[in-house]
Amino acid sequence: MPRIGFVPLDDRPCTKDFPGRIARIAKTKVKLPPTHALGHFLTPGQPKLIKEWLLKVAPDLDYLIISIDMLTYGGLIGSRTPRVAKAEAFEHLTILKQLKEINPRIKIFAWNVLMRISITVHDNLTAQYWEQMNRYSVLLAQAQEDTLAEKDRELLMSLQNEIPTSVQDTYFRARERNHEVNQHAIELVKARIIDTLIICQEDAHPIGPHKLEQKRLLETIDVADLNHRIFLHPGADESGLNLLARAFCDYYQQKPSIELKFYPDQARQSIPIFEDIPLGDSVISQSLASGLKINGSDAVLWGAVYGPSETAQGLEVWQRKADQPLSETILENLWGATSDHAKRGILPILFDVRTPNGSDPTLLRFLQGKDSSLLASYAGWNTAGNTIGTALAHGIIYALAREGGTLDEFAQQEFMIERILDDYAYQKIVRDELGELISQNPHWGTRHQLNPEAWNLLNTLVQERLQSWADDYLEKYNLPPVVVQASLPWPRIFEVKVQVQSQKELKV
Fold first, then answer.
1. Are 381 and 404 in contact (CB under 8 A)?
2. Where residue 311 falls among pLDDT bands split at 50, 70, 90?
3. Is the dihedral of CA 421, 426, 429, 430 positive or negative?
4. Between β-strands 301-306 and 347-352, what pairing exists: parallel, antiparallel or unpaired?
């Protein structure tokens, strides 16, 4: 089995727990740093402790998958402030060269986030600044490129005056430093210290300061002929999973092929909310980064991309109304093709990216009564990039494990169930209930940051609601009963931690 070390982006389940939950499908364990070294919520991780851990485990690793944001700034939220100076960030990165010297065999797969176009939200005031900075970043970029419409000049000036100088300064100083760290990471690829690098574009817009940064980075990548080792596309949390799948492909010396189909057809060219390139380009880039070939005649995987019909447009794209439900005919065609490929031995992956922040309810209601066990993987959480990377890694590792005789059927089934409970039951049903309760009990805090009493109360409710939902609905997806463990990992309601155990497994 591959010996893999994994330094996550932070301690949220999607970055810390998913790698292990997916790797166990292939009966493989992933080594993680001590939890206390990763920080928690608004408290950044500790690069010093991360480096001490790396020096201990590196001699025994085949692969190191590492978040540069955690190594340099203490995680994603830490990356959005200039607390860590550029020189200190560069110093932290020198550990990677040391690891290569300690273990010349180790392959280092790294990812780093290209900063979003706004700030971190942790209360109602920062939520207001988040919206204002989203608008301001887009308008400012248009002004710098001399494409700002005359009607928007007054709004730009108004936002510049309304947003506190300290907020703007923090944002742009962090942005400038992060860009230089991304440039330095490319140099580490040139030097063959980093073997593969993903630069992932966090929450963005088709226009903004990130586009100029991307242009400069891509020019450097092209000149150095590194397109086969450096990938730039929308995402953040899932990029470690892309690299996990790549490590498995490399270990088993396999380069599986995936065939892609978009539902509806125009989804291929649509730009999803929070992203800046067409969906088709994003899926292809993540597939290549994960170690796949695209649309080969010997396809092992088939990807059904259930996406938006239209491109996100306008200054406030995050407020865009959801697309109208797709016709029953399109859904029937999607499932018919899924069943057909499964019968032919081509493993289906279902990418549910029609709407952000959770599964599409129309699709999940349609899937009731269908045999979900036909799917190699499914995901439908948060941004399109997050969903794509999660479903790809799950599907790839399932395929390799099945082919290599290392498949853990319980682990495969459990992660599939966890995706439905998290992406649909929590994100589209239970989270709305929690939000309503918070609005009725303002003394609890806000949905962005709960006080300890509310956090405990809502943890109890989340556990009850998700166990109840599993008991009532899993059989409708031809999935077995499970024991659910669910909680809010941070004192907010944006994400949930869900792990299940099959009742059949408990009896073994």
1. no
2. confident
3. positive
4. parallel
The whole-angstrom distance between residue 242's C-alpha and the CA centroid of its chain comes to: 9
Q: Which residue is associated with the tokens 């608004």?
A: 42
Alpha-carbon gap, residue 31 to 61, rounded angstroms: 9
CA distance 16 to 87: 27
The span from the CA of 273 to the CA of 276, in Å, is: 8
Answer yes or no: are the C-beta atoms of 12 and 422 closer than 8 Å: no
Give the three-state DSSP class for 41. Answer: coil
Residues 188/93, Cβ–Cβ less than 8 Å: yes
The answer to whether the CB of 93 falls within 8 A of the CB of 34 is no
| pTM reported for the whole predicted model | 0.97
Share of the chain above pLDDT 70, in %: 98
**What is the Cα–Cα distance from 75 to 42, expressed in whole angstroms?**
10
Residues in the chain: 508
* Residue 107: strand, helix, or coil: strand
By three-state DSSP, how is residue 238 classified? coil
Q: Which of 235, 231, 308 is nearest to 276 (CA)?
A: 235
Nearest-angstrom CA–CA distance, 462 and 432 = 12
* pLDDT of res. 321: 62
Q: How far is CA 87 from CA 95, 172, 186, 470, in A?
A: 14, 17, 17, 50
- Characterize 244-274 residue by residue with b for buried, 16 or more Cβ atoms within 10 angstroms of its Cβ, and e for exposed: bbbbbbbbbebebbbbbbbbbeebbebbbbb
- At position 264, the amino acid (one-letter code) is P
Q: Whose CA is closest to 92, among 44, 32, 30?
A: 44
Query: Rounded to an integer, what distance in angstroms lies between the CA atom of residue 310 and that of residue 452?
Result: 42
Q: Are 58 and 218 in contact (CB under 8 A)?
A: no
What percent of the chain stands above pLDDT 90?
94
User: What confidence category does residue 503 fall into, taking pLDDT thresholds of 50, 70 and 90?
Assistant: confident
Q: Look up residue 12 and give its two tokens.
A: 């949220």
d(CA 18, CA 336): 29
3-state secondary structure of 19: helix
Q: H/E element holding 500?
A: strand 497-502
Distance CA 506, CA 284 (A): 39
Maximum C-alpha span of the chain: 69
The SS3 assignment for 149 reads: coil
